[in-house]
Every structure is written in structure tokens, then in C-alpha cells.
Write a structure and sequence with these properties.
This protein is mostly helical and 166 residues long. The protein is built from six helices and two strands. The protein has a two-stranded antiparallel sheet. A hairpin with a 2-residue loop joins strand 1 and strand 2. The two termini are 23 Å apart.
Length: 166
């Protein structure tokens, strides 16, 4: 599996500042924080079905917005500058890991194979090497600190630091 290093650069300059929903975003960190805070408050007030519907709507808007841009377009979001393809990857990884967290102790379907494969790609890129004998799920869970590595996995990691992010 070919794995490339992440292209996120803190010194990159945004070539666009459109948010996933088409409005301005990232230019006013205080407004962004207020928006995030309001979203968290709303999440506590709505039932699961309403929250799920809002999430699916926002995710679809983000997918359309990011998908309509050239991959090398640099976007500002949450105080960072990311290429459009890196933002799409970040959103997919976040959604996959949040899904895994939500169903960890439930009798419910876990994240998609495609989501877990993207988490694996990112984790292996950050580690600087592949873990070919591991499942995508184990790379995702151990690589992000959601599971402890087994003795055999410890040996495979051979001094690599995990979690690479949480």
C-alpha cells in the first residue's frame, strides 16, 4: 500500500476561505468558536434523529463544497490552512473515529470499510510506515489510542509512538 506523508503545512496560505456550507469561514476565530459552542449546545437539546439529520446535511454540504474544488486549493478552517483534499480526508477521519466512539459499547454497526481505510492511510503516513499484518480497524483503534496494542502489536510498533492523534 503506497502511503504518502500528510501535506498539511502551518505556513500554507489559504487560496479560499469558504466554509463547507458556502459561507465565509476561518477568517474570524472568535466567530468560529461561537459557532462551535452553539452547535454543541444545540446537540444537547435535540433528539438523536434531529441531530443525525443535521449531521448528514452538513456532511453532504461539506462533501459537495470540498469536492467542487481543485485538490490543491488551500482552505482556512479552525485557524489552520489545509489543501481541499486534506480537509476532505480530515473530515472523513473525524467522522469515522466519532462513529467508532459512539458505537464502541453498543450493538450497532461500526464505521464503514472506506472510512477505516482512510484512517489507516493517515495513521500509517504519520507513523512513517505500514502495518501490513493489522486490520484497518486495529490500525485505527490502536493508532489513535482507542485501544491498547497487544504484545504482538507492541513488537510491530518497535519504538513508534502511538497514538499519532486522538
Amino acid at each position: 500500500m503506497a502511503s504518502s506523508r500528510p501535506t498539511h503545512r502551518r505556513d500554507a496560505r489559504p487560496t479560499a476561505t469558504r466554509s463547507a456550507t458556502g459561507g465565509r469561514g476561518g477568517a474570524d476565530p472568535e466567530a468560529d468558536e461561537r459557532s462551535r459552542r452553539a452547535t454543541r449546545v444545540e446537540a444537547g437539546l435535540d433528539g438523536f434523529a434531529d441531530l443525525r439529520g443535521r449531521y448528514l446535511e452538513a456532511a453532504a454540504a461539506a462533501r459537495r463544497a470540498v469536492g467542487s474544488l481543485p485538490v490543491a486549493t488551500v482552505l482556512a478552517t479552525q485557524g489552520h490552512a489545509l489543501r481541499a483534499d486534506d480537509l476532505a480526508s480530515t473530515l472523513a477521519v473525524e467522522a469515522t473515529l466519532h462513529h467508532a466512539d459512539l458505537v464502541a459499547h453498543l450493538d450497532a454497526a461500526g464505521p464503514t470499510d472506506a472510512g477505516l481505510a482512510e484512517v489507516r492511510r493517515v495513521v500509517e503516513a504519520l507513523l512513517g510506515r505500514a502495518l501490513p499484518d493489522w486490520s484497518d480497524r486495529r490500525v485505527a483503534l490502536v493508532g489513535t489510542g482507542r485501544a491498547e496494542p497487544s504484545d504482538a502489536e507492541h513488537r510491530d510498533l518497535a519504538g513508534l509512538a502511538v497514538p499519532v492523534f486522538s
